[in-house]
Amino acid sequence: MTQHIPFIITAAYLVIAVVIGAGAGRGHNMRTVEGWGVGSRSMGPFVIYLLVAAGGVSAYTFMGSPGWAHDKGVPALYVVVYLAFMSFVAWHIGPKVWNFGRRFGHATQSTTITDRYESPLLGGLTAVVVSIGGIAYAVLQTIGSAYILNVMSFGLIPTWLGVILTLAVISIYLFRSGLRAIGFTNAFQGALMFIVSFMVGLWAVNWFTGGFDATPIFERLQQDAPEFLTLPGALGDMSYAFWTTSILISFFSIWQSHWISWMGAKSARSLKVATTYLPLYYLVLIPMIIVGFIGIFEYPDIAASDKVAIQLAVDNMPVIVAGLLGAGTLAASMSSSEPNIHATALTYSKDVLQPLFKLSNERTGRMTRWLIFPLMALIIAPISIMEPASLVYILLIGYGFTGQAFPIMIGIFYWPRATKVGALVGLIAGSIVTILFSFVFVHPLGIHAGIWGFAVNIPCFVIISLLTKPASDETLARYFTKSKKAAPAAD
What we know:
Elements: H1 5-23, H2 33-38, H3 45-56, H4 59-71, H5 78-104, H6 109-117, H7 120-152, H8 159-209, H9 215-224, H10 240-251, H11 256-263, H12 268-276, H13 278-281, H14 285-298, H15 308-316, H16 319-357, H17 361-368, H18 372-386, H19 391-402, H20 406-413, H21 420-439, H22 449-467, H23 473-480
Helix pairs in contact: 1-8, 1-16, 3-8, 3-12, 3-16, 4-14, 4-16, 5-10, 5-11, 5-12, 6-7, 6-20, 7-8, 7-16, 7-18, 7-19, 7-21, 8-14, 8-16, 8-18, 11-16, 15-16, 16-17, 19-22, 21-22
Membrane topology: Multi-pass membrane protein
Family: Belongs to the sodium:solute symporter (SSF) (TC 2.A.21) family.
Transmembrane segments: 6-25, 46-63, 75-94, 121-140, 146-175, 187-208, 240-260, 280-297, 309-332, 367-385, 391-414, 421-443, 449-468
Protein backbone atom coordinates (compact mmCIF):
# COMPACT_ATOMS: atom_id res chain seq x y z
CA MET A 1 0.00 0.00 0.00
CA THR A 2 2.85 2.39 0.86
CA GLN A 3 4.21 2.33 -2.69
CA HIS A 4 0.89 3.68 -3.98
CA ILE A 5 0.87 6.74 -1.71
CA PRO A 6 2.80 9.00 -4.18
CA PHE A 7 0.27 8.20 -6.90
CA ILE A 8 -2.69 8.76 -4.56
CA ILE A 9 -1.31 12.19 -3.56
CA THR A 10 -0.67 13.08 -7.21
CA ALA A 11 -4.13 11.96 -8.33
CA ALA A 12 -5.75 13.83 -5.43
CA TYR A 13 -4.52 17.06 -6.98
CA LEU A 14 -6.82 16.46 -9.97
CA VAL A 15 -9.82 16.41 -7.67
CA ILE A 16 -8.69 19.56 -5.84
CA ALA A 17 -8.20 21.40 -9.15
CA VAL A 18 -11.75 20.54 -10.28
CA VAL A 19 -13.26 21.71 -6.98
CA ILE A 20 -11.35 25.03 -6.97
CA GLY A 21 -11.72 25.73 -10.68
CA ALA A 22 -15.38 24.83 -11.04
CA GLY A 23 -16.37 27.16 -8.21
CA ALA A 24 -14.24 30.10 -9.37
CA GLY A 25 -16.81 31.36 -11.87
CA ARG A 26 -19.69 31.54 -9.42
CA GLY A 27 -21.48 34.90 -9.68
CA HIS A 28 -20.03 35.73 -13.13
CA ASN A 29 -21.66 35.35 -16.55
CA MET A 30 -19.56 32.76 -18.38
CA ARG A 31 -21.59 33.04 -21.58
CA THR A 32 -19.86 36.29 -22.50
CA VAL A 33 -16.35 37.02 -23.76
CA GLU A 34 -15.90 39.49 -20.90
CA GLY A 35 -16.86 36.93 -18.25
CA TRP A 36 -15.29 33.72 -19.57
CA GLY A 37 -12.44 35.37 -21.45
CA VAL A 38 -11.02 37.94 -19.03
CA GLY A 39 -12.72 37.01 -15.78
CA SER A 40 -14.78 40.23 -15.74
CA ARG A 41 -11.47 42.05 -15.06
CA SER A 42 -11.97 41.27 -11.39
CA MET A 43 -8.84 39.57 -10.04
CA GLY A 44 -6.65 41.21 -7.40
CA PRO A 45 -2.83 41.40 -7.24
CA PHE A 46 -2.27 38.13 -5.33
CA VAL A 47 -4.31 36.01 -7.76
CA ILE A 48 -2.81 37.80 -10.79
CA TYR A 49 0.70 37.31 -9.36
CA LEU A 50 0.29 33.56 -9.05
CA LEU A 51 -1.73 33.35 -12.29
CA VAL A 52 1.19 34.80 -14.27
CA ALA A 53 3.97 33.25 -12.16
CA ALA A 54 2.57 29.71 -12.09
CA GLY A 55 1.78 30.00 -15.80
CA GLY A 56 5.48 30.58 -16.48
CA VAL A 57 6.72 27.87 -14.13
CA SER A 58 5.50 24.74 -15.84
CA ALA A 59 6.35 21.16 -16.74
CA TYR A 60 9.69 22.16 -18.21
CA THR A 61 10.66 23.57 -14.79
CA PHE A 62 10.05 20.32 -12.94
CA MET A 63 10.87 18.00 -15.84
CA GLY A 64 12.38 19.80 -18.84
CA SER A 65 14.96 21.91 -17.00
CA PRO A 66 16.18 19.02 -14.77
CA GLY A 67 16.31 16.96 -17.97
CA TRP A 68 18.45 19.59 -19.69
CA ALA A 69 20.70 19.89 -16.62
CA HIS A 70 21.11 16.10 -16.69
CA ASP A 71 21.90 15.92 -20.42
CA LYS A 72 23.61 19.24 -21.12
CA GLY A 73 24.47 21.00 -17.84
CA VAL A 74 24.48 24.79 -17.50
CA PRO A 75 22.62 25.45 -20.79
CA ALA A 76 19.50 24.74 -18.67
CA LEU A 77 20.06 28.11 -16.97
CA TYR A 78 18.77 29.89 -20.04
CA VAL A 79 15.32 29.45 -18.49
CA VAL A 80 16.30 31.53 -15.47
CA VAL A 81 17.59 34.38 -17.66
CA TYR A 82 14.66 34.63 -20.05
CA LEU A 83 12.04 34.49 -17.31
CA ALA A 84 13.69 37.46 -15.62
CA PHE A 85 13.51 39.36 -18.92
CA MET A 86 9.88 38.36 -19.43
CA SER A 87 9.07 39.74 -15.97
CA PHE A 88 10.41 43.11 -17.09
CA VAL A 89 8.20 43.03 -20.20
CA ALA A 90 5.15 42.17 -18.07
CA TRP A 91 5.92 45.02 -15.65
CA HIS A 92 6.45 47.58 -18.42
CA ILE A 93 3.79 46.62 -20.97
CA GLY A 94 1.16 44.82 -18.88
CA PRO A 95 -0.47 47.97 -17.39
CA LYS A 96 -0.60 49.55 -20.87
CA VAL A 97 -2.38 46.45 -22.16
CA TRP A 98 -4.83 46.58 -19.26
CA ASN A 99 -5.64 50.24 -19.94
CA PHE A 100 -6.24 49.58 -23.64
CA GLY A 101 -8.52 46.68 -22.75
CA ARG A 102 -10.53 48.70 -20.25
CA ARG A 103 -10.86 51.77 -22.47
CA PHE A 104 -11.55 50.05 -25.78
CA GLY A 105 -13.22 46.79 -24.67
CA HIS A 106 -10.44 44.48 -25.87
CA ALA A 107 -10.31 40.88 -24.71
CA THR A 108 -7.35 39.46 -26.67
CA GLN A 109 -4.03 40.50 -28.13
CA SER A 110 -5.35 40.21 -31.67
CA THR A 111 -8.41 42.34 -30.84
CA THR A 112 -6.00 45.14 -29.94
CA ILE A 113 -4.05 44.55 -33.15
CA THR A 114 -7.24 44.67 -35.24
CA ASP A 115 -8.28 47.93 -33.60
CA ARG A 116 -4.89 49.67 -33.73
CA TYR A 117 -4.11 48.72 -37.36
CA GLU A 118 -7.74 48.86 -38.56
CA SER A 119 -7.33 45.40 -40.05
CA PRO A 120 -9.34 42.29 -39.09
CA LEU A 121 -7.13 40.35 -41.53
CA LEU A 122 -3.96 41.27 -39.63
CA GLY A 123 -5.62 40.52 -36.29
CA GLY A 124 -6.87 37.13 -37.47
CA LEU A 125 -3.58 36.12 -39.08
CA THR A 126 -1.66 37.13 -35.96
CA ALA A 127 -4.04 35.04 -33.87
CA VAL A 128 -3.26 31.98 -36.01
CA VAL A 129 0.53 32.51 -36.04
CA VAL A 130 0.77 33.21 -32.31
CA SER A 131 -1.49 30.24 -31.58
CA ILE A 132 1.23 27.94 -32.94
CA GLY A 133 3.35 28.90 -29.95
CA GLY A 134 0.41 28.57 -27.57
CA ILE A 135 -0.55 25.14 -28.90
CA ALA A 136 3.10 23.98 -28.73
CA TYR A 137 3.21 25.11 -25.11
CA ALA A 138 -0.08 23.33 -24.30
CA VAL A 139 1.29 20.18 -25.92
CA LEU A 140 4.47 20.44 -23.86
CA GLN A 141 2.49 20.74 -20.62
CA THR A 142 0.10 17.94 -21.53
CA ILE A 143 2.98 15.57 -22.26
CA GLY A 144 4.49 16.59 -18.91
CA SER A 145 1.25 15.74 -17.11
CA ALA A 146 1.08 12.36 -18.82
CA TYR A 147 4.71 11.61 -17.86
CA ILE A 148 3.92 12.31 -14.21
CA LEU A 149 0.88 10.05 -14.11
CA ASN A 150 2.83 7.33 -15.92
CA VAL A 151 5.79 7.38 -13.50
CA MET A 152 3.73 7.81 -10.35
CA SER A 153 1.46 4.89 -11.29
CA PHE A 154 4.52 2.70 -12.06
CA GLY A 155 3.44 2.46 -15.69
CA LEU A 156 -0.16 1.50 -14.92
CA ILE A 157 -1.38 4.66 -16.67
CA PRO A 158 0.18 4.78 -20.16
CA THR A 159 1.09 8.13 -21.66
CA TRP A 160 -1.90 8.23 -24.00
CA LEU A 161 -4.30 7.69 -21.12
CA GLY A 162 -2.51 10.32 -19.03
CA VAL A 163 -3.04 12.82 -21.86
CA ILE A 164 -6.77 12.08 -21.98
CA LEU A 165 -7.21 12.22 -18.18
CA THR A 166 -5.39 15.54 -17.85
CA LEU A 167 -7.29 17.23 -20.67
CA ALA A 168 -10.61 15.86 -19.39
CA VAL A 169 -10.01 17.37 -15.95
CA ILE A 170 -8.93 20.73 -17.37
CA SER A 171 -11.97 20.83 -19.65
CA ILE A 172 -14.36 20.54 -16.69
CA TYR A 173 -13.30 23.66 -14.81
CA LEU A 174 -12.07 25.61 -17.83
CA PHE A 175 -15.47 25.32 -19.51
CA ARG A 176 -17.24 26.21 -16.28
CA SER A 177 -15.20 29.22 -15.12
CA GLY A 178 -12.78 30.39 -17.84
CA LEU A 179 -9.97 32.74 -16.80
CA ARG A 180 -11.17 32.87 -13.20
CA ALA A 181 -10.72 29.09 -12.98
CA ILE A 182 -7.17 29.48 -14.25
CA GLY A 183 -6.48 32.29 -11.79
CA PHE A 184 -7.79 30.50 -8.70
CA THR A 185 -6.30 27.10 -9.51
CA ASN A 186 -2.98 28.79 -10.30
CA ALA A 187 -3.04 30.50 -6.92
CA PHE A 188 -3.19 27.09 -5.25
CA GLN A 189 -0.80 25.54 -7.77
CA GLY A 190 1.71 28.37 -7.41
CA ALA A 191 1.97 28.05 -3.64
CA LEU A 192 2.22 24.26 -3.90
CA MET A 193 4.95 24.40 -6.56
CA PHE A 194 7.10 26.88 -4.66
CA ILE A 195 7.00 24.84 -1.44
CA VAL A 196 7.55 21.50 -3.19
CA SER A 197 10.48 22.73 -5.30
CA PHE A 198 12.52 23.84 -2.30
CA MET A 199 11.46 20.81 -0.23
CA VAL A 200 12.62 18.40 -2.94
CA GLY A 201 15.75 20.40 -3.79
CA LEU A 202 16.91 20.59 -0.18
CA TRP A 203 16.12 16.92 0.41
CA ALA A 204 18.06 15.87 -2.70
CA VAL A 205 21.10 17.97 -1.78
CA ASN A 206 21.12 16.58 1.76
CA TRP A 207 20.66 13.03 0.51
CA PHE A 208 23.50 13.35 -2.02
CA THR A 209 26.02 15.41 -0.01
CA GLY A 210 25.10 14.81 3.62
CA GLY A 211 24.35 18.52 4.14
CA PHE A 212 22.50 21.46 2.67
CA ASP A 213 25.43 22.96 0.77
CA ALA A 214 25.31 22.27 -2.99
CA THR A 215 29.00 23.12 -3.47
CA PRO A 216 30.18 19.46 -3.45
CA ILE A 217 27.89 18.72 -6.41
CA PHE A 218 29.59 21.32 -8.58
CA GLU A 219 33.06 20.42 -7.30
CA ARG A 220 32.49 16.84 -8.38
CA LEU A 221 31.21 18.01 -11.76
CA GLN A 222 34.28 20.19 -12.18
CA GLN A 223 36.52 17.22 -11.45
CA ASP A 224 34.69 14.39 -13.21
CA ALA A 225 32.60 16.05 -15.95
CA PRO A 226 33.59 19.71 -16.50
CA GLU A 227 31.83 19.78 -19.87
CA PHE A 228 28.53 20.13 -17.94
CA LEU A 229 29.64 23.49 -16.52
CA THR A 230 30.32 25.42 -19.73
CA LEU A 231 28.69 26.07 -23.07
CA PRO A 232 28.05 24.32 -25.44
CA GLY A 233 27.20 21.76 -22.72
CA ALA A 234 27.88 18.06 -22.39
CA LEU A 235 26.18 17.18 -25.67
CA GLY A 236 27.94 19.99 -27.55
CA ASP A 237 24.67 21.16 -29.10
CA MET A 238 24.02 24.40 -27.20
CA SER A 239 26.44 26.85 -28.74
CA TYR A 240 26.90 30.41 -27.50
CA ALA A 241 24.89 31.60 -30.50
CA PHE A 242 21.96 29.25 -29.94
CA TRP A 243 21.90 29.80 -26.16
CA THR A 244 21.90 33.58 -26.60
CA THR A 245 19.38 33.72 -29.42
CA SER A 246 17.07 31.32 -27.55
CA ILE A 247 17.01 33.85 -24.72
CA LEU A 248 16.42 36.72 -27.15
CA ILE A 249 13.49 35.10 -28.95
CA SER A 250 11.96 34.23 -25.58
CA PHE A 251 12.37 37.83 -24.41
CA PHE A 252 10.68 39.21 -27.53
CA SER A 253 7.72 36.81 -27.31
CA ILE A 254 4.60 38.37 -25.76
CA TRP A 255 2.29 35.40 -25.33
CA GLN A 256 -1.42 35.59 -26.06
CA SER A 257 -2.12 33.84 -22.73
CA HIS A 258 -0.05 36.41 -20.80
CA TRP A 259 -1.83 39.29 -22.54
CA ILE A 260 -5.24 37.87 -21.60
CA SER A 261 -4.08 37.22 -18.03
CA TRP A 262 -3.00 40.87 -17.70
CA MET A 263 -6.47 41.96 -18.81
CA GLY A 264 -8.03 39.88 -16.04
CA ALA A 265 -6.58 42.18 -13.35
CA LYS A 266 -8.87 44.36 -11.26
CA SER A 267 -6.79 47.44 -12.08
CA ALA A 268 -3.55 48.57 -13.70
CA ARG A 269 -2.14 49.14 -10.23
CA SER A 270 -2.95 45.54 -9.19
CA LEU A 271 -1.11 44.30 -12.25
CA LYS A 272 1.89 46.56 -11.60
CA VAL A 273 2.19 45.29 -8.03
CA ALA A 274 1.90 41.66 -9.13
CA THR A 275 4.51 41.87 -11.89
CA THR A 276 6.99 43.76 -9.69
CA TYR A 277 7.62 40.62 -7.65
CA LEU A 278 7.58 38.03 -10.43
CA PRO A 279 11.38 37.41 -10.47
CA LEU A 280 11.25 36.32 -6.82
CA TYR A 281 8.90 33.50 -7.69
CA TYR A 282 11.20 32.22 -10.40
CA LEU A 283 13.76 31.22 -7.77
CA VAL A 284 11.66 28.04 -7.81
CA LEU A 285 13.75 26.95 -10.83
CA ILE A 286 17.09 26.69 -9.06
CA PRO A 287 16.41 23.68 -6.77
CA MET A 288 15.04 21.61 -9.66
CA ILE A 289 18.03 22.35 -11.89
CA ILE A 290 20.29 21.21 -9.04
CA VAL A 291 18.26 17.99 -8.84
CA GLY A 292 19.05 17.51 -12.54
CA PHE A 293 22.78 17.90 -11.80
CA ILE A 294 22.50 15.22 -9.11
CA GLY A 295 20.82 12.98 -11.69
CA ILE A 296 24.00 13.11 -13.83
CA PHE A 297 25.68 10.84 -11.28
CA GLU A 298 22.68 8.85 -10.05
CA TYR A 299 20.97 8.15 -13.39
CA PRO A 300 23.65 8.43 -16.10
CA ASP A 301 21.79 6.11 -18.49
CA ILE A 302 18.16 7.08 -17.92
CA ALA A 303 16.18 6.64 -21.14
CA ALA A 304 14.00 9.74 -20.80
CA SER A 305 15.91 12.53 -19.08
CA ASP A 306 12.75 14.64 -18.70
CA LYS A 307 11.71 12.11 -16.04
CA VAL A 308 14.95 12.26 -14.01
CA ALA A 309 13.61 14.36 -11.11
CA ILE A 310 10.43 12.29 -10.80
CA GLN A 311 12.41 9.03 -11.00
CA LEU A 312 14.85 10.17 -8.32
CA ALA A 313 11.93 11.05 -6.07
CA VAL A 314 10.08 7.76 -6.57
CA ASP A 315 13.22 5.67 -6.02
CA ASN A 316 14.78 7.48 -3.06
CA MET A 317 12.57 10.04 -1.32
CA PRO A 318 10.01 9.43 1.43
CA VAL A 319 6.66 8.57 -0.13
CA ILE A 320 5.04 11.79 1.09
CA VAL A 321 7.77 13.95 -0.49
CA ALA A 322 7.64 11.95 -3.71
CA GLY A 323 3.87 12.30 -3.80
CA LEU A 324 4.06 16.04 -3.25
CA LEU A 325 6.60 16.33 -6.08
CA GLY A 326 4.21 14.41 -8.33
CA ALA A 327 1.34 16.71 -7.36
CA GLY A 328 3.51 19.80 -7.71
CA THR A 329 4.76 18.78 -11.13
CA LEU A 330 1.26 17.94 -12.28
CA ALA A 331 0.13 21.33 -10.97
CA ALA A 332 2.98 23.02 -12.85
CA SER A 333 2.08 21.43 -16.16
CA MET A 334 -1.65 22.02 -15.83
CA SER A 335 -1.15 25.65 -14.75
CA SER A 336 0.52 26.37 -18.07
CA SER A 337 -1.55 24.12 -20.32
CA GLU A 338 -4.92 25.58 -19.34
CA PRO A 339 -4.16 29.29 -20.06
CA ASN A 340 -2.87 28.43 -23.53
CA ILE A 341 -5.91 26.30 -24.33
CA HIS A 342 -8.13 29.09 -23.02
CA ALA A 343 -6.28 31.84 -24.93
CA THR A 344 -6.29 29.90 -28.21
CA ALA A 345 -10.04 29.16 -27.99
CA LEU A 346 -10.76 32.78 -27.09
CA THR A 347 -8.69 34.34 -29.88
CA TYR A 348 -9.94 31.87 -32.52
CA SER A 349 -13.54 32.72 -31.69
CA LYS A 350 -13.08 36.47 -31.20
CA ASP A 351 -10.42 37.24 -33.82
CA VAL A 352 -10.88 34.58 -36.50
CA LEU A 353 -14.41 33.16 -36.53
CA GLN A 354 -16.34 36.29 -35.51
CA PRO A 355 -15.03 38.54 -38.32
CA LEU A 356 -14.96 35.68 -40.82
CA PHE A 357 -18.63 34.73 -40.33
CA LYS A 358 -19.89 38.16 -39.14
CA LEU A 359 -21.04 36.76 -35.79
CA SER A 360 -22.67 38.93 -33.13
CA ASN A 361 -20.92 39.51 -29.80
CA GLU A 362 -23.61 37.47 -28.05
CA ARG A 363 -23.19 34.45 -30.31
CA THR A 364 -19.40 34.69 -30.12
CA GLY A 365 -19.58 34.74 -26.33
CA ARG A 366 -21.76 31.63 -26.25
CA MET A 367 -19.51 29.81 -28.72
CA THR A 368 -16.11 30.68 -27.25
CA ARG A 369 -15.86 28.21 -24.41
CA TRP A 370 -17.15 25.32 -26.57
CA LEU A 371 -14.05 25.65 -28.77
CA ILE A 372 -11.84 24.14 -26.06
CA PHE A 373 -13.25 20.69 -26.87
CA PRO A 374 -12.30 20.41 -30.58
CA LEU A 375 -9.01 22.15 -29.79
CA MET A 376 -8.17 19.50 -27.21
CA ALA A 377 -9.56 16.51 -29.08
CA LEU A 378 -8.34 17.26 -32.61
CA ILE A 379 -5.02 19.04 -32.05
CA ILE A 380 -3.52 18.94 -28.55
CA ALA A 381 -4.34 15.34 -27.61
CA PRO A 382 -3.13 13.67 -30.87
CA ILE A 383 0.13 15.65 -30.95
CA SER A 384 0.76 15.02 -27.24
CA ILE A 385 0.22 11.28 -27.64
CA MET A 386 2.86 11.25 -30.41
CA GLU A 387 5.35 12.87 -27.95
CA PRO A 388 7.40 14.90 -30.48
CA ALA A 389 10.93 16.06 -29.51
CA SER A 390 11.98 16.93 -25.96
CA LEU A 391 9.87 19.18 -23.78
CA VAL A 392 12.18 22.17 -23.93
CA TYR A 393 12.70 21.98 -27.71
CA ILE A 394 8.93 22.04 -28.21
CA LEU A 395 8.87 25.24 -26.19
CA LEU A 396 11.71 26.81 -28.19
CA ILE A 397 9.94 26.12 -31.49
CA GLY A 398 6.80 27.76 -30.09
CA TYR A 399 8.74 30.89 -29.13
CA GLY A 400 9.99 31.25 -32.70
CA PHE A 401 6.43 31.77 -33.96
CA THR A 402 5.16 33.83 -31.04
CA GLY A 403 8.08 36.22 -31.40
CA GLN A 404 7.09 37.16 -34.96
CA ALA A 405 4.32 39.34 -33.53
CA PHE A 406 6.80 41.53 -31.63
CA PRO A 407 7.27 44.17 -34.38
CA ILE A 408 3.48 44.55 -34.44
CA MET A 409 3.62 45.29 -30.70
CA ILE A 410 6.11 48.08 -31.36
CA GLY A 411 3.51 49.67 -33.62
CA ILE A 412 0.89 49.42 -30.88
CA PHE A 413 2.90 51.01 -28.10
CA TYR A 414 5.65 53.14 -29.64
CA TRP A 415 5.50 53.78 -33.41
CA PRO A 416 2.46 55.56 -34.89
CA ARG A 417 3.91 55.28 -38.40
CA ALA A 418 3.56 51.47 -38.42
CA THR A 419 0.95 50.36 -40.97
CA LYS A 420 -1.19 47.30 -41.45
CA VAL A 421 0.49 46.46 -44.77
CA GLY A 422 3.96 46.64 -43.25
CA ALA A 423 2.88 44.55 -40.28
CA LEU A 424 1.15 41.99 -42.49
CA VAL A 425 4.07 41.53 -44.90
CA GLY A 426 6.58 41.38 -42.04
CA LEU A 427 4.52 38.78 -40.14
CA ILE A 428 4.08 36.54 -43.19
CA ALA A 429 7.71 36.79 -44.28
CA GLY A 430 9.05 36.21 -40.75
CA SER A 431 6.74 33.22 -40.20
CA ILE A 432 7.80 31.57 -43.47
CA VAL A 433 11.47 31.94 -42.56
CA THR A 434 10.80 30.59 -39.06
CA ILE A 435 9.07 27.51 -40.51
CA LEU A 436 11.92 26.85 -42.96
CA PHE A 437 14.64 27.32 -40.34
CA SER A 438 12.82 25.26 -37.71
CA PHE A 439 12.07 22.18 -39.83
CA VAL A 440 14.08 22.27 -43.08
CA PHE A 441 17.34 24.18 -42.56
CA VAL A 442 17.46 23.83 -38.78
CA HIS A 443 18.83 26.93 -36.98
CA PRO A 444 21.55 27.97 -39.50
CA LEU A 445 24.86 29.05 -37.92
CA GLY A 446 23.45 27.96 -34.58
CA ILE A 447 21.08 30.95 -34.51
CA HIS A 448 17.49 30.32 -33.42
CA ALA A 449 15.02 30.14 -36.32
CA GLY A 450 12.87 32.86 -34.75
CA ILE A 451 15.77 35.32 -34.85
CA TRP A 452 16.25 34.56 -38.55
CA GLY A 453 12.56 35.30 -38.90
CA PHE A 454 13.18 38.67 -37.23
CA ALA A 455 15.98 39.39 -39.71
CA VAL A 456 13.38 39.34 -42.49
CA ASN A 457 10.32 40.47 -40.55
CA ILE A 458 11.65 43.73 -39.11
CA PRO A 459 13.08 45.25 -42.34
CA CYS A 460 9.85 44.38 -44.19
CA PHE A 461 7.80 45.89 -41.38
CA VAL A 462 9.77 49.16 -41.25
CA ILE A 463 10.33 49.76 -44.98
CA ILE A 464 6.82 48.89 -46.14
CA SER A 465 5.28 50.89 -43.27
CA LEU A 466 7.19 53.95 -44.43
CA LEU A 467 5.87 53.43 -47.96
CA THR A 468 2.21 52.82 -47.13
CA LYS A 469 -0.66 54.70 -45.55
CA PRO A 470 -0.89 54.68 -41.72
CA ALA A 471 -4.05 54.21 -39.68
CA SER A 472 -6.55 57.06 -39.41
CA ASP A 473 -5.78 60.09 -37.26
CA GLU A 474 -8.69 59.17 -35.01
CA THR A 475 -7.27 55.71 -34.25
CA LEU A 476 -3.74 57.00 -33.74
CA ALA A 477 -5.00 59.69 -31.38
CA ARG A 478 -6.65 57.02 -29.20
CA TYR A 479 -3.44 55.02 -28.91
CA PHE A 480 -0.80 57.73 -28.74
CA THR A 481 -2.56 60.55 -26.89
CA LYS A 482 -3.15 60.15 -23.18
CA SER A 483 -6.85 59.99 -22.56
CA LYS A 484 -8.37 62.01 -19.74
CA LYS A 485 -11.02 59.30 -19.51
CA ALA A 486 -8.56 56.47 -19.00
CA ALA A 487 -9.50 54.10 -16.20
CA PRO A 488 -7.89 55.01 -12.87
CA ALA A 489 -4.87 53.03 -11.76
CA ALA A 490 -5.97 52.70 -8.16
CA ASP A 491 -8.13 49.78 -7.00
